[in-house]
Amino acid sequence: MSNSRAFSDLPPELLLEIAEYLRPRSFVAFMMALPSLASIMPKRLTAMEGRFGTVLGYMAMDRGSAEICRRLITRMEIDVNIKPDYWGSRALTTAMTRQHDVMVDLLLARPDIEINYRDQQRPLLHHVVNNRCIVSLRKLLARNNLDFNARSRWGDSALTRAAAAGCTEAMELLLREPGIVIEPDQRTWANKVDSYSREVGTLDTPLIHAAAQGHRDIVRLLLPLAHQTDATGTPLVDVNARCQYRGRTPLIRATLSRKVAVVEMLLEHILVDVNARDNKGRTALSHAAHMGHLPIIRRLLARPDVDVREPNSRRRTPLGHAAAKGFFTACQILLEHPDVECHARDSTGRTPLMHAAQSGSVETFRLLLYQCTNGEEDWTDRTGRGAWDYAHLKRHTEMMEIFSNYQIDQQAGSYDEDDAMDEGDGSNDSDGMDEGDESNDDDVMDERDD
């Protein structure tokens, strides 16, 4: 193959006979060595298929094939829309994702080229967006017959793919298109996709994907569209849309992903429901308390309409979640809110104090014990166990001692809360914290006190 001069001396008939015995990859290399063959190559040979696609597909993989592309693709008898029978993509898909601009231009110049087809269950536009091929995307959007709302087998759109991938430039280009559908009609597609598709979120809105991945620029693009409506009066973007799998809103997804900046952006939007619940009844504050993420907890509590007593489906409050994990500082911040209910029972009858006894955090246990004013420390759950019982069951001797001393002091009337709290204020958990730095999420977590 390297000695192209020797082959060029052979008659064309013999060269074509040699080409008959070549596999597609070698066939393309043969034509690249002898570009003049592309002008006379029979149509049936150009339709050969190899392991990873057709001859045109192999040409699209190599940007060095520009010369044979000019000679072969301009021949109108050549089928440029041929689809591989086994594996691989069409030539246009490969050329665009491999950024073979010469071949892309030649293919798009063909009047018979198809652009609204599917490769591997996804439209061409999806492959272009997934690979961040902005130049090819501009060329596709310039065509009048492109279906930019086409969806994959799993129900997601090109706009959804761009939001999930964090491709801001693609989002900007797609949002400029008149008639673009930003959010899918979940009722229409819910019965057309399988359970796996719903679990991975293919029917979720672009805002949900962008919030979960922390793509701030895309969130910033989408939020203003919540104030605009379509012809039916429906907002273009629903800032409280729920994902298909667990019913979580963009705010909850951003909270779970610990994307502080995105949470802050969402909370500044007037239409965001800070108390929205997922399928398990958990709010964003419940999730933040469960994780002990102090910056997000503080930002959520700063909203005047936040409900710190909102329980989940098992009636556990955010304070109960934080206590169950033994997050001292998270409990301390929640207790500072005037509307907090210190001794709210969940569906098992347990209070935050009982959860703290199980968690093993001595400081959290002491903090919640000091909130007892009317004998709440003696309450029991549905099994008949109280805070002391759980401390005894877990063999937390220090908790048992604190509890016993507390009861003795209460009975003697010499209990002084301020003196007791001096033993452990936990203030070092949040000192020096950079709340706005998302790159060190582990540093802002309220670690369990073992």
UniProtKB/TrEMBL annotation:
Q: Where is the composition biased (Acidic residues)?
A: 415-450
**Keywords assigned by UniProt, alphabetized:** ANK repeat, Repeat
Q: List every stretch annotated Disordered.
A: 410-450
Q: Where are the ANK repeats?
A: 348-369
Annotated protein name in UniProt? Ankyrin
Against InterPro entries, the record matches this protein to: Ankyrin_rpt, Ankyrin_rpt-contain_sf, Dendritic_Spine_Reg/Scaffold
Keyword check for Repeat, yes or no: yes
